[in-house]
Amino acid sequence: MQPIGPLMIEHRLIERMIALMGAELTRIKENVAIEPEFAFVDPVFIDAAVDFMRTYADRCHHGKEEDILFAALATKDLSPEHRQLMEDLIRQHAWGRETTAKLLKAKEGYLLEKPGALNDVLAHLGKLVEFYPRHIELEDKHFFIPCMGYCSDSEKDSLLARMYDFDRSLIHEKYRLQVEAIERRKACKPHKS
Ligand SMILES: [Fe+2]
Ligand SMILES: [Fe+2]
Known about the structure:
With 193 residues, the protein is mostly helical. It is built from 5 helices and no strands. Helix 1 runs antiparallel to helix 2, helix 1 runs antiparallel to helix 4 and helix 3 (80-111) runs antiparallel to helix 4 (117-148). Residues 7, 11, 61, 65, 136, 139 line the site of one fe (ii) ion.
């Protein structure tokens, strides 16, 4: 398999989550149109979507793109068009990360019944639903395949092996960070005897 193979397979799962986020957006908007007072944001869904976007789409998927594929391509004599596209894609990843953080903050505001929080949830959800398919299309159709032309077969094999290694460490990283975050929170609280 080429190193872009796992990335394209991951795109298909990201598209499925984006479709679910789009359906949730439509559901809330329809409820708002019928009876705004009974329109509700499902915080469990938003938490699941944010976790997916952070852990899978950003850390796992964008991580392999930026730290392995793009890092290797950065050492090549890329055409100005491909170099520009790669820089745009990195900027788009940062934008996706920021918008996901804003969605989480809006959901927290919604739970605290802050004015405007429902509209903020809808706005950030809508931006992510609109953005990701375009980002994926740019990579699948205009960047990944031509960029394989810059790599030899042995380089492609090495990139693929590094991607598998990267994936293998992620589950351990996720739960180590989770334990460390809880330990930090516990350490801040006084002990009760
Ligand atoms: Fe990407
Ligand atoms: Fe991607």
